[in-house]
Amino acid sequence: MQKSMRFYVMAAMMLSLLTASCSAVRMPEGSPTQPQPLSPAYTQPAVVSLATQVPVVDPCSSLEAKKPEIETIARIMGEFDDTSYLIQSIPDSGQMVQVILVLQRIRRDAIDNKPPECLKKLKEAQVNFMSGVVLTSISIMSKSDKEAIQKQLAQTRTYRSVFDQELANQLGLKYITATPVPTTAPTAVPPTSTVSPVTATTDQDIYVVQGPGLTYPAVGTFLKGQITNVMGRNDKGDWIEIEVPSNPGYAGWVPKQLIKLAGQESSLPVINIQPTQPAAQ
């Protein structure tokens, strides 16, 4: 019995020692009800934050600051362009429904995007263009009046020009209205043929310019994954004239090294451009 009592007393003493060693407050012997102030050795040290404050960068302060937001807008537009191009290859207007639904989804993504104030005009032009494409596609699917469709196409083309011009402004590039494709006598092609003998694609987003040289102003865009008809080449063969994907029915020039050609390049006519209207530097 005494051994048991001795065990419990020893256990209680051990527990009291453990709790005392874990506590910052020590009770002196002989005065258990009078706590002493903390010993200087146990003074709580001040907490010093080592985190450095990251300066907030104004997204409109420079081109580099705006670039991520511009790339987001361009990415959404590229997806929209790639999808809208499918409409041209759908023979049955009834099959356009699924494509139009995808276009509407991408348009909602553009609306939900929240760019900084300096890019609001670019976003507005983008949404206007997308709305025009969707409405025109619905008119084509429902076989609306041809004259009304032509008006919608013209308005939509204007919206796209506004977008391309604002994009060029944001990137610090000069932009002018594209020149119409020269009117020529139509060439007879097999009934099953829907594209010219030579087409072009690109692996990157590039600008289409007015003439065969970097001094000419931009007239449109040629985005990654798009395909377009090739009109001709310059005498050196290092610049190719194409139909501007962002402005169907209009022509512009791109460096050959930035595109991929499909078809017989040797069949392309040599087109001479008057070098009298380059953009001012």
TrEMBL record:
SMART domains, per database record: SH3b
Keywords noted in UniProt: Signal
Keyword Signal part of the UniProt annotation: yes
InterPro entries in the record: SH3-like_bac-type
Domain called SH3b: residue spans: 193-262
Annotated signal sequence range: 1-24
Record-given protein name: SH3b domain-containing protein
Origin organism lineage: Bacteria, Bacillati, Chloroflexota, Anaerolineae, Anaerolineales
